[in-house]
Amino acid sequence: MILIENLTKLWTGFDWSVLILYMVGVVVIGLSMKTRAGKSVKSFYVASRKLTVPILVGVGAASWYDSWTIVGLGECGWTMGISILLVFVIPETLCRLPLALVVGPHVRDDIPDWVVTAPDLLMYLYNDKVKLISAITYIANIFYDSALLFAIAEVMKLVSGMPLWVTLAVTGAIIALYTSMSGFWGSAITDLIQFAIMTVSAGALLIGIMIKFGGLPAVWAKLAVIDPKLLTPTGHLTFWEGVGWFISACAMYCEAGCYQRFGSARSGRDIKTAYSIMLAMGLTFSIAMVFAGMAARAFFGGAGVKPSYGFWELVFTVLPIGLRGLFVSALFAAVMSTIESDWLLFSTCLVNDIYRGFINKGLSEEKTVRGVRIGIIGFGAVTVVGTIFWAGGIADAWYYLGGFLFAMFFIPITAGLFYRKRRSEGALACITSSAVLYVVWEFILNCPGGIPSSAVVTVVGAIIYFTVCQIFYKKYGRSSEGGRPR
After folding, report:
1. Distance, CA of 446 to CA of 439 (rounded, Å)
2. CATH number of the structural domain spanning residue 44
3. What's this model's pTM, rounded to 2 decimal places?
4. How many CB atoms lie within 10 A of CB 356?
5. pLDDT tens digits, the chain, 486 residues: what are they?
6. How far is 28 from 33, CA to CA, in rounded Å?
7. How many domains does the chain have?
8. Does 411 map to a domain?
């Protein structure tokens, strides 16, 4: 077992070379894509809807499997054992299948071309008010990006010895510079490379664990002594905690970046092909990270050791020089692939959906793109500051934030796409009541009976949505407010 303080000694000049080569390559791609990305909002945000199947595989995988999938699932494997596979990883994959085969193709092929962002989609389904509320709410998801950024800044602190605030600032600046230059064109090109790096790194880590410790049987034997519950289907989870994790597994139906990637495809058929391939690969990747976290707990789970520190001790123990640098590059890749998309989304929501949509409707495409670029820098700074909330670990980041998104938007989006009696009044009632109830249940009542806020809010929100829609549909018929281009 190595001490976490010794990681700087194990990090070599060759590892630095691998990481620097990756970062320089990303910035170069960003510069090369600047001209193509800056033509219009559609070009900057959804790559002119021209992405092919191979690039869509990388784009989808690199966004759905981020640094939380690496470090967060590793921490979950450490604290929850195999139960995280049953309440989150496997349900997440199964729930994403209809998203890839039905929802994605429908959004790409049957929704008008002017719909670019998730708030655009909600305006098409309902009205301007729903769009405004959704644009503001999606920006709040920046706290999840803070968790992702913290994961990479923490490991950079461990290997470099620099203060955490320095690694946060440097990492945030690199991502903001790259994203503001290239928009989604740069993301599309690099995501394929990033996913390849993530896949190779995960495979190398598993092989290293097999060679160093003897594989799964050895891990199981150690955990049976340390904490036998980690090997049971329920682990240390209560029933309601399991429900909360399951709900967060479905939150991708409400994730704006997901719809951005659907909109960037050439066709719905390409989405079906690319995402079916990617789901199988992603499931394997997630299981590998849970197993790595369990191995870290088994062999590096000393008293008082943080799960994230134990995870990195495992990585540096089983991987040789060079592959350590590649694995850290994989974490960078995972962070960048998600954060770049989110910052692009947040800035587009602020400048295009809110400012251009409601305040200055005559703003030109060129000035809108320029504003989006400036906004990306600003959101980068806010994300860096928000990392203070995740100093204790990022394992619960998606549990809470994913559950919050699901509770507010799952019913309005999925029902809005397929429910023939949808009404703007139902969507507004569902979204606003869900926001209020979530805050009350989570922070004022402190989840009575241990029932997670996401479960309560989702059920109540669904009742409110369908009841209000039914009332106003009988009175007015289908809403005439939705479906209007800007």
Report:
1. 9
2. 1.20.1730.10
3. 0.79
4. 22
5. 555 556 777 888 899 998 888 878 777 776 676 555 555 555 655 556 777 888 788 777 766 676 678 878 888 999 999 999 999 999 988 988 898 899 989 988 988 877 877 888 898 999 988 988 888 887 777 877 887 788 778 888 888 888 878 888 887 887 777 666 665 566 666 667 777 787 888 889 999 999 998 888 999 999 999 999 999 999 999 999 999 899 888 888 887 777 877 877 888 999 899 888 888 778 888 999 999 999 999 998 876 788 888 888 899 889 998 888 888 887 777 777 677 777 877 888 788 888 888 888 888 878 888 888 888 888 888 888 887 777 666 666 666 777 777 888 899 999 999 898 999 999 999 999 998 998 899 889 999 999 998 899 999 999 999 999 999 998 887 654 565 544
6. 9
7. 1
8. no
- For residue 66, which amino acid is it? D
Sequence letter at residue 319:
L
> Distances from the Cα of 440 to the Cαs of 130, 397, 437, in angstroms?
22, 19, 5
Torsion region of 319: left, alpha or beta (phi above 0 gives left; psi -120 to 50 gives alpha):
beta
Q: Which two tokens stand for residue 49?
A: 């809807």
Which residues, other chains included, contact 193 with Cβ-Cβ below 8 Å and sequence gap of 6+? 25, 58, 333
Residue type, 257: G
Report the alpha-carbon distance of residue 62 to residue 67 in Å, rounded: 10
Does residue 97 fall inside a structural domain?
yes
102-113 exposure pattern, b = at least 16 Cβ within 10 A, e = fewer: ebbbebbeebee
Nearest CA to 395 out of 83, 11, 54 is that of 83
Q: Is residue 261 part of a domain?
A: yes
Alpha helices in 353-419 (DSSP H): 365-386, 397-418
What is the separation of C-alpha 265 from the centre of its chain, rounded to a whole number of angstroms?
19
Asked if the structure places residue 406 within a domain, the reply is no
Q: Whose CA is closest to 391, among 150, 69, 144, 152? A: 150
Q: Which domain holds residue 156?
A: 4-390
